[in-house]
Design a protein that fits this description.
Order of helices and strands: HHHEEHEHEHEEEHEHEHEEEHE
Number of strands: 13
CATH class of the largest domain: Alpha Beta
Shape: elongated
Distance between the termini: 19 Å
Largest sheet: 9 strands, mixed
Strand content: 15-25%
CATH architecture of the largest domain: 3-Layer(aba) Sandwich
């Protein structure tokens, strides 16, 4: 016995005609005929008296139809409750976000988010990528904001935007006045400041180019993009940073990459069992409001609903 079969017999009771009932259910007449017959064979009784025109429920069919109507109604109410729960933003939610994204988007959108959604409490923590993935797996946090893909079967990735990398440093390091730069140019430079091991951003940078030469008498690897920028400002050299890490006063130290520009994909990541699609949608919209206009955005978001 299936819910679909119960809906078919209720339609048949309402219209008392197989063809009309099939049309109202948006299926073919043989489909509804076969399914009703299967249900009758499974329960061992006839629900409809087909010898009459229009057909009529049998006495036991009347009882079955009455119960079927209650079941279908309760199921619809249950679906409504679940879908309402998916849309609800009331409650406390734990968010893990990597440190190379957090300072550049959280301060920009969180004020408006909390103003618009006063009944939503967000507990936000900066974490490394692997810690976010493990915490999502163990259900210690609800949402991750990080660079994707992470390619974990238990996770659902909702891309937000693509952020370009830029060169940050002295233009004097370059052999000529460059309007743009390439990975090949980077590999010829000296004095490269780099995030320390364990940060996914370090790996993303090293995927752009081989480790450049470093002939300084100090090897310094930081866990903070802002610290790397200060090292460049005070001691020279260069680093690669995400574009959102550049403020207005620092633009003279930035050179953009030539096309195709190296980028990172930033996404919301949740467990596949996470049901709060309403929260995901609101977070997406608030974050995308503060992203620079030149970034490629993912405007599409398909909610998972129980139909």
């Amino acid at each position: 016995m299936t819910l679909q079969q119960l809906e078919y017999i209720l339609a048949l009771d309402m219209y008392r005609h197989f063809v009309t009932a099939a049309e109202k259910c948006h299926v073919t007449q043989p489909t509804i005929t076969i399914q009703v017959k299967k249900l009758e064979e499974e329960i061992g009784v006839a629900i409809f008296d087909r010898s009459k025109t229009p057909l009529e429920p049998t006495p036991v069919g009347e009882v079955i139809l009455s119960k079927a109507k209650l079941i279908v109604q309760e199921t619809k109410q249950l679906k409504e409750i679940i879908n309402h729960e998916r849309e609800s933003l009331v409650g406390e939610f734990k968010i893990g976000i990597i440190s190379t994204i957090s300072p550049y988007i959280i301060p920009k959108f969180i004020g408006n988010f909390m103003k618009e959604h006063p009944h939503t409490s967000l507990d936000i923590n900066e974490m490394q990528t692997e810690d976010i993935i493990q915490s999502l797996d163990r259900e210690l946090i609800d949402i991750g904001i990080l660079v994707t893909p992470v390619d974990k079967p238990f996770l659902r990735e909702i891309p937000l935007y693509n952020e370009p990398f830029v060169y940050y440093g002295s233009h004097n390091l370059l052999l000529s006045s460059h309007l743009t730069i390439t990975a090949a140019d980077i590999e010829q430079l000296e004095g490269f400041w780099l995030l320390n091991s364990g940060h996914c951003f370090r790996n993303q940078v090293l995927n752009i180019c081989d480790t450049p030469k470093n002939k300084k008498n100090i090897a310094f690897q930081s866990g903070s993009i802002e610290t790397l920028k200060k090292m460049v400002d005070n001691y020279g050299g260069f680093t690669l940073i995400p574009e959102m890490a550049v403020n207005q006063q620092e633009k003279s130290k930035v050179i953009h990459f030539a096309d195709p520009k190296p980028i990172r994909e930033v996404s919301i990541v949740v467990r596949k069992s996470f049901s709060k699609d309403g929260l995901i949608e609101v977070l997406r919209k608030e974050i995308l409001k503060v992203i620079p206009a030149n970034f490629k955005r993912n405007e599409k978001f398909v909610k998972i609903r129980w139909q």
